[in-house]
Amino acid sequence: xxxxxxxxxxxxxxxxxxxxxxxxxxxxxxxxxxxxxxxxxxxxxxxxxxxxxxxxxxxxxxxxxxxxxxxxxxxxxxxxxxxxxxxxxxxxxxxxxxxxxxxxxxxxxxxxxxxxxxxxxxxxxxxxxxxxxxxxxxxxxxxxxxxxxxxxxxxxxxxxxxxxxxxxxxxxxxxxxxxxxxxxxxxxxxxxxxxxxxxxxxxxxxxxxxxxxxxxxxxxxxxxxxxxxxxxxxxxxxxxxxxxxxxxxxxxxxxxxxxxxxxxxxxxxxxxxxxxxxxxxxxxxxxxxxxxxxxxxxxxxxxxxxxxxxxxxxxxxxxxxxxxxxxxxxxxxxxxxxxxxxxxxxxxxxxxxxxxxxxxxxxxxxxxxxxxxxxxxxxxxxxxxxxxxxxxxxxxxx
Length: 398
Ligand code: IPM
Ligand code: MG
Hints:
This protein has helices spanning 2-29, 52-67, 69-74, 87-93, 99-106, 131-138, 166-169, 190-206, 224-236, 249-255, 272-286, 312-316, 326-338, 342-359, 373-384, 389-397; strands at 42-47, 77-82, 110-113, 143-150, 155-162, 175-176, 182-183, 211-216, 243-248, 267-270, 293-297, 302-306. A ten-stranded mixed β-sheet has the order 2-1-3-12-11-4-5-10-8-9, with helices on both faces. A two-stranded antiparallel sheet has the order 6-7. The protein is of the alpha/beta class. It contains 16 helices and twelve strands. The chain has a domain at 31-141 and 298-398: Isopropylmalate Dehydrogenase. It is globular, with a radius of gyration of 21 Å. α8 (190-206) packs across α9. The chain binds 3-isopropylmalic acid and magnesium ion. 3-isopropylmalic acid is lined by residues 118, 130, 132-133, 276, 307, 309.
């Protein structure tokens, strides 16, 4: 009996290794990134998601449409409605992303994606993989970029979370070896680590930042995290003006709460799961996960989303209209910058700061005590169009 279990385990492990060997070869062959200045029209696909996703992605799309009005009129930008990325449709097809939906997504250049429900053991949905994780893998969106800023505390962090490997990608390929033993896999590859670490260093270089922090647990998870750390120190040699320091994930979660030290950190680069956890903590310090946007960037496609989930409880309690749209609006600003509209991205970000941090005429609290997402979006739009936006922002930001 144990012989059969071992044979089964061996063949499952072999197929994982085969898949990873193929993926590494593909990564090595990947050519340069898409240049949006030569693309016309640029197609922005909008996936509405589930739960509060439907509401807040609507608000973000409204903001995007507003600031891109003239390009949409000229046909330089096109919005494409992608309807099928709902939990009902995914459950019906028993697929994280149904084939026709994936085809639609791939026909776009960039995606604005509302939060989607990830089934978990014991709930009413079939236990399909997360749509986020699947999309990141299918489109090879290897860099999850998550900025967090708290100007009053001098905090300006940018997290570069590896998005296609680590504990995540193979999480859904784990298996029960026997009635008593479960195994999951974590993989870090040389080209996979290199591309995210290089992106973090390039960001630091382009923004005159002299320090990059790699976060691992390489003292314990020696093989995979050990590789991630080794690659970081190898790449660092190419950037003599930038200092690389390594921190372990446990102490790093503590350091984010240290008011004396935390603003010394600027750029973080970290494997998938640590990035998932640390960015929620960072976003909470900024004002809640509802305030943080996220870019998922690959060589060919990019996807922009909130960093949080679909909050089904808010919907059952009838509070979806009070959901904070700022995470999705921040993600839209990142989308604008990515496709070559940095000034408009800045405008949206300045309006978010003026409304949320400086003027604070309205508050969004997620319940009746605050305004609705609709009202807040109108507030944001009024500042986006206000000629005094920049001076108001500068007055406070300095
Ligand atoms: C995130 C989310 C996702 C993740 C979930 C929804 C699968 O928490 O984007 O951080 O864990 O990556
Ligand atoms: Mg997360």
